[in-house]
Amino acid sequence: MNDSYNGFQSFFEIVVADTPELLEAVYRIRYQVLCVQNTFPDMSADDYPDQLEKDEYDGHSCHALLRFKSTGQYIGAVRLILVDPNNPEKLFPVEINTHVDSQLCDLKKIKRQETAEISRVVIASQFERRKGERRKPRDGEGESNESATRSENNESRRRIVCSGDSKSNGNVIRSDKDRRATDRRSTPHLSLLLMACVMRLSVKHNIKHWISAMEPALNRLLRFYGLNFHCVGPAVNYHGIRRPYCIKVDEVLSRMHKENYESWEVLTECGKYNLSF
C-alpha cells in the first residue's frame, strides 16, 4: 500500500448515502457549495428555502459522501445518475444539455442499464486547498518578504535537531503536528477520492460506462492521476463551461493498474471495489 492510499485511509472515509438522514446531508452540502458559494452561477440560494439542493434525477440516483475523520464533518459528495427504472429511455442530463458526437461515443450502442452519469461533484470550500499549501506565484509575481520570512521560520522550526539525544544521531526530529501536516499533504486531491466513491457505487450497481458533463479543468486534474475521460463533444454553457465526457470503466482501470498503480489503489481501495479486467 502506498502513501497516497494510506493518507486517504487515515484522514477520510467514504459513506454511501443510503438513509434519509445521509441523503439530507448530501443535499445540504450541495446547497452550500452550488447555491451559497455559487459554484453553479445559474443557481440561487433563494430558490431553496429548505437549504436542500435536489432535482428530478435524485430519485433514480445513488449518492456518496466523503467524511473527514478527525471532525466527523462531511466535506464532499457525489452522485451517480442511474437509468430510471420507470422510464428506461429517459435521457441523461448530459444527453439533454450537451452535444455528444456519436462518432466519438454512440450512446445508443451502449447498454443503458450499465451506464451512469457522474454529477454533483462537490467539495466544501475550506477543503479545496489543503492546509499549508500556498498558491504558486504566477510568472512575474514575487513572493513577499513577509511570506518568504515566514516560510523560512517555519522551515527552521521543522528542523529541530536534538544534538544531546543519542537516539537522534543528528537526524531531523519532526513534531507530531509537522508529521500530520506532511501526511495530510501525501493524500491525493479530494476529486480523486470522490471518484473512489463513484467506483464503490459503480461496483454495487454493475456500472461499466461513465458519462459526465464536466469542467475541462476537472478532467485535467483527474488525468494527472491516470483517470483520463474521453472528450466526446464541444464546450457548452451548462452550469458554467463544460464538455461531455465518457469512459469505459474496465479499460481505464486496466490502464491505471499498469501505469498509475498508486492512483488505482486509491480508486479501487486496493482492489476491493473493482471490475474484472
SSE blueprint and pairings:
Elements: H1 3-11, E1 12-16, H2 20-36, E2 61-68, E3 73-81, H3 93-97, E4 115-123, H4 145-158, H5 176-185, H6 190-205, E5 209-214, H7 216-224, E6 230-231, E7 236-237, E8 241-248, H8 249-259, H9 261-268
Parallel strand pairs: 4-5
Antiparallel strand pairs: 1-2, 2-3, 3-4, 5-8, 6-8, 7-8
Helix pairs in contact: 1-9, 6-9, 8-9
Characterization of the model:
This protein has about 280 residues and is of the alpha+beta class. It has 2 domains: about 200 residues, Aminopeptidase (3-Layer(aba) Sandwich), CATH 3.40.630.30; about 35 residues, no CATH class. About 35% of the residues lie in helices and about 20% in strands. Strands 1, 2, 3, 4, 5, 6, 7 and 8 form an 8-stranded mixed sheet that branches. Strand 7 and strand 8 form a beta hairpin. Helix 1 runs parallel beside helix 9, helix 6 crosses helix 9 and helix 8 packs across helix 9. About 20% of the residues have low confidence.
